[in-house]
From TrEMBL:
UniProt cross-references to PROSITE patterns, sorted A to Z: TRANSKETOLASE_2
Cofactor: how and how many bound: Binds 1 thiamine pyrophosphate per subunit. During the reaction, the substrate forms a covalent intermediate with the cofactor.
UniProt KW Zinc keyword: no
Residues reported in the UniProt entry to bind Mg(2+): 127, 157, 159
GO CC annotation: cytosol; nucleus
Organism: Aureobasidium melanogenum
CC cofactor: thiamine diphosphate; Co(2+); Mg(2+)
Identification of the protein by name: transketolase
Record's subunit section: Homodimer.
GO molecular function terms listed in the Swiss-Prot or TrEMBL record: metal ion binding; transketolase activity
Length: 535
């Protein structure tokens, strides 16, 4: 992938993308996602050439401990890397989330004369990503949502680890995407036809009501003596082949880690144009402040990652004599209480809205306006029965930097999304998993729906908080900590059955993660429990 996708990368980054290496966090930058993350050496090389804080020594430390160039891209490790990818298909779904976040943020903040948020999301993906179910779920979602700001480029090199893809993958991928509602393009000679690549991207950018995919037929290991074979998939080239490649492309075969100055100059020119674009955007944002003061303050605050002042005062509190309520309903009460105070919070469900209680009464759905069932600035997302895509899309929504996503399903079916939940934790995304029906209390549906091992699984996962509130104050505490933890996802395990309000529970106590509910002097046994078992 790094060699086969180098030509399209050169065209895409230099001719189309807007970004500023001196400020990788500029909100209106174009986003790039490498879903086939094993090709990350290409991305690291590009970041170095454009002047991001990735040095030649960093490139030399590729795939070594403590390197900022790890074996798969990791957000927060490498300047310029948007999301953590590696498990195939995850990045594709992240890209859908990034594009959705752009559309929602634009719908919220763009005003006449102020096209503040108009960036594109570009995603590279390969045959492996295309085979994964999560990519199908996400592609279906993107097509339904008419995300014209999303352009995916399919590295069609016909090679997988097992060899030629004809052994397992022979479908017509473009017909699949057409069925999902995508615009499709095809460039036959992806190794050399730079003009064809440029023209295809231009045509995609002209399509505003559909996501686009470009099928790019490439040669894996392009230029190598082993090009087009599985021998260059995940294996370093031998010394004599490296010299062969250098000769092919006009480099001194005896020199390594050398970039001609004219190449740096060309790439830095693109970076300078991106810095100028950000400077112009900053002027527009200043003017926006004078005409749309409240909206400007809201967006500026969101970009700091801070929550609105005093929002926590909206959290519901309970007394022991208050009515017994299921914690999924307590969660709904929290959302109802805070949605106005925390405008960056977006909620949703994988087709279980009425069971998960994830939608506040006045919520507007996030939908293309031409559907007649929602608006671009809507804050409720209908994910459909796509748990895995929902979780990975939420990682993209969070990574965009203006939204805090929450999404619901049954606790047992968070297991369907486990790959993406793991990446929420690894990439430090503030994502809330609202996981209802959390025990064998879901008896009538049988063992297929009962989450027996699920809590142990996610409690064992580093950098995720698993909350299982036992009453209303504990539920409010779970939301308080989840929303204030800027680099940690949270899973809220919630009941279907009613729970009494406990003596002595408070938001302050529960926020610490645990407290003594009942104490007996000279006790022989200490019982530790969570959720419905406490009551």
């Amino acid at each position: 992938a790094p060699m086969g996708m180098a030509p399209v990368s050169h065209v895409l980054f230099n001719k189309f993308m807007r970004f500023n290496p001196k400020n990788p966090d500029w909100v209106n930058r174009d986003r790039f996602v490498l879903s086939n993350g094993h090709g990350c050496m290409l991305q690291y090389a590009l970041l170095h050439l454009f002047g991001y804080a990735v040095s030649m020594d960093d490139l030399k430390a590729f795939r070594t401990i403590d390197s900022i160039c790890p074996g798969h891209p990791e957000a927060h490790d490498t300047p310029g890397v948007e999301v953590t990818t590696g498990p195939l298909g995850q990045g594709f779904a992240n890209a859908v989330g990034l594009a959705m976040a752009q559309a929602q943020t634009a719908g919220t903040f763009n005003k006449p004369g102020f096209d503040l948020i108009n960036n594109y999301t570009y995603c590279f993906f390969g045959d492996g990503c295309a085979m994964e179910g999560i990519a199908s779920e996400a592609a279906s979602t993107a097509g339904h949502l008419q995300l014209g700001n999303l352009i995916a480029i399919y590295d069609d090199n016909h090679i997988s680890i097992d060899g030629d893809t004809k052994c397992a993958f022979t479908e017509d991928v473009m017909k699949r995407f057409e069925a999902y509602g995508w615009h499709t393009e095809y460039v036959e000679k992806g190794d050399t036809d730079l003009q064809g690549i440029e023209d295809a991207i231009k045509r995609c950018r002209e399509v505003k009501d559909k996501p686009s995919v470009i099928k790019l037929t490439t040669t894996i290991g392009f230029g190598s003596q082993l090009q087009g074979t599985g021998g260059v998939h995940g294996n370093p080239l031998k010394a004599d082949d490296i010299k062969h490649v250098k000769k092919q492309f006009g480099f001194d075969p005896e020199k390594s880690f050398v970039v001609p100055q004219e190449v740096y100059d060309m790439y830095h020119k693109t970076a300078d144009a991106g810095a100028a674009a950000e400077a112009e955007w900053n002027k527009l944002f200043e003017k926006y402040a004078s005409e749309h003061k409240e909206a400007h303050a809201d967006l500026a605050r969101r970009l700091t990652g801070k929550l609105p002042e005093g929002w926590q005062k909206c959290l519901p509190t309970y007394k022991p004599d208050d009515a017994a309520i299921a914690s999924r309903k307590l969660s709904e009460s929290v959302l109802e209480a805070i949605y106005e105070a925390v405008p960056e919070l977006v909620s949703g469900s994988a087709d279980l809205t009425g069971s998960n209680n994830t939608r506040w009464k006045k919520a507007v759905d996030f939908q293309p306006p031409n559907t007649g069932i929602g608006q671009w600035d809507g804050r409720y997302i209908r994910y459909g029965v796509r748990e895995h895509a929902m979780a990975a899309i939420m990682n993209g929504l969070s990574a965009y930097g203006t939204l805090i996503p929450a999404g619901g399903t049954f606790l047992n079916f968070v297991s369907y999304a486990a790959g993406a939940v793991r990446l929420s934790a690894l990439s430090h995304q503030r994502v809330l998993y609202i996981a209802t029906h959390d025990s064998i209390g879901l008896g009538e549906d049988g063992p297929t729906h009962q989450p027996i091992e699920t809590l142990a699984h996610f409690r064992a996962l580093p950098n995720i908080m698993v909350w299982r509130p036992a009453d209303g104050n504990e539920c409010s505490a779970a939301y308080y900590v989840a929303l204030t933890s800027r680099e940690t996802p949270s899973l809220l395990a919630l009941t279907r059955q009613n729970l009494p309000q406990l003596e002595g529970s408070t938001i302050e106590k529960a926020s610490k993660g645990g407290y003594v509910a009942l104490e007996q002097e000279k006790a022989d046994v200490t019982l530790v429990s969570t959720g419905s078992e406490v009551a």
